[in-house]
Structure formats: C-alpha cells, structure tokens
Amino acid sequence: MMQTIHCIGSDKKNGEFQFSYEFIKEKGIEKHIYMIYKKPADKKQFFEMEIWKSSDDRFISTNMNHNNHKELMRKGIPSTMIEMISHQFAQPIYSSSNECKIFENEFRSESATSLWKKLVQNGKARYDDKQDRFIFIAY
Length: 139
Description:
2 helices
C-alpha cells in the first residue's frame, strides 16, 4: 500500500510523492527499505532510501539515491523521509560514516554530507566528530 508525503524542494515548491515500505532481515541485519515515487507513481522512476538497524539498535541511513531521475532531484525527499522515519520508530536516525564503519561497504557521499549539514543548520541534527556521524534528533 502506497503512502503519501509532502516535500519542499530547493525551489521552495511543495511536491507530493508516494512511497512504499519493505522490511527484510538479511544476514542478521534489519533493513527498512523505502521506494519513493512522483505522484502518480511511476515504478520505473524512484528514489530509494534504506535504513539499517545496527547491532547496538541504532537506525542508520545507508542509502539515499535518486537514481539520476531529475523529477526526484532536489525535491526535499531525503530530509522529509529522515524526519518521517525518525517519527515512525521514535528513534534518532544516524548517517553513515566514512571513519567508524559498522556495515560492510558503508560510506557517506559528499551529497549526503551536504544534506546532513543542512539538517544541522536547521537545528534538526548534530554532528558527532568522534564517530563521523550526523544524528537526526528532532523526533
């Protein structure tokens, strides 16, 4: 079943998107997978977001990917989804780290770092320099 989210893009325009949710457990790791589509949903064009639960019960954003679909770029989808997911689980959401990796192949891209820095500027996140992780704290 698709759910709807409203996002404010970098152009300050309000956009409406739909998303689906899937939970899988793979190799002992709980993975929460969100597929976000422009409304009405076009299954060929999606923004993918994954939150993995670490062994110490932290929810870590491991994937935020617009898959080069212009209709899904700079629309405010990742920040809106991070906030929604934080509320869903009543937990802070952590960024991936380039220094203190928990998962194999974990990394944080420059564009993800830029997004997290904006969340810090807006008072919704903080940065933990010891772990090289941003933490969304506004749940």
